[in-house]
Amino acid sequence: MALGIMLQYISDFQYYMDKYGDPRTNPWFLMSSPFPTLLICLSYVYLVKVLGPRFMENRKPYELKNVLILYNFLQVVFSAWLFYESMMGGWLNHYSFRCQPVDYTENPKAIRMVHACWWYYFSKFTEFFDTVSFNVFPKHKSRIMLLQYIGTLHIIIM
Predict the structure, then answer these.
(1) Pairwise CA distance, residues 153 & 147, whole Å
(2) Cα–Cα distance, 68 to 12 (Å, whole number)
(3) How far apart are CA 18 and CA 32, in angstroms?
(4) Are 82 and 120 spatial neighbours (Cβ–Cβ below 8 Å)?
(5) For residues 67 and 44, what is the distance between their CA atoms, to the nearest angstrom?
(6) Which DSSP string corresponds to 51-98?
(7) DSSP secondary structure code for residue 158 in this structure
(8) Phi (first) and psi of residue 33, to 5 degrees
(9) Residue 71 in contact with residue 129, Cβ under 8 Å?
(10) Most buried of the four, 35, 55, 91, 114, by CB within 10 Å?
């Protein structure tokens, strides 16, 4: 009985996503269903809270300073490009700062903003590496909570 209810819920949810989802983004990575995103997030939590600490329990911290410098540099470049795309795709050209209706057309300006939104969404997954890296640098674990707090505020503000 419980399995039947769960399968019906999943079927109803998939119907809702197919009916009301944006058809322009359906073939894009992570856009056809929320389940891959859910799986990635649950795997991330398991890695950071269980597997990572258990793996590093009796090991010395890894020396990944250069990797982290490169990662941070690439994140800055990615964020700058994303800011540029969001400005040029709408906010500096034709978007209203009060209330902008969603443009579901194939208009190049609308598609550019949809792409910028998708890359912003994807950037949240690239930022998972920050917290994962703190598992291999145990002396920096106190910063994890602060980064998670800032990241949550960032999403709420946006």
Answers:
(1) 10
(2) 43
(3) 8
(4) yes
(5) 20
(6) IHHHHHTTSPPP--HHHHHHHHHHHHHHHHHHHHHHIIIIITTT--SS
(7) -
(8) -160, 150
(9) yes
(10) 114
- Residues ≥6 apart with Cβ < 8 Å to 99: none
Residue with tokens 């470049």: 77
Q: Is 30 left (phi over 0), alpha (psi -120 to 50) or beta?
A: left
Q: Taking the C-alpha atoms of 80, 82, 86 and 89 in order, what is their torsion angle to the nearest 10 degrees? A: 110
Q: Residue 106 has which token pair?
A: 């194939």
> What six digits make up the tokens of 99?
């209330």
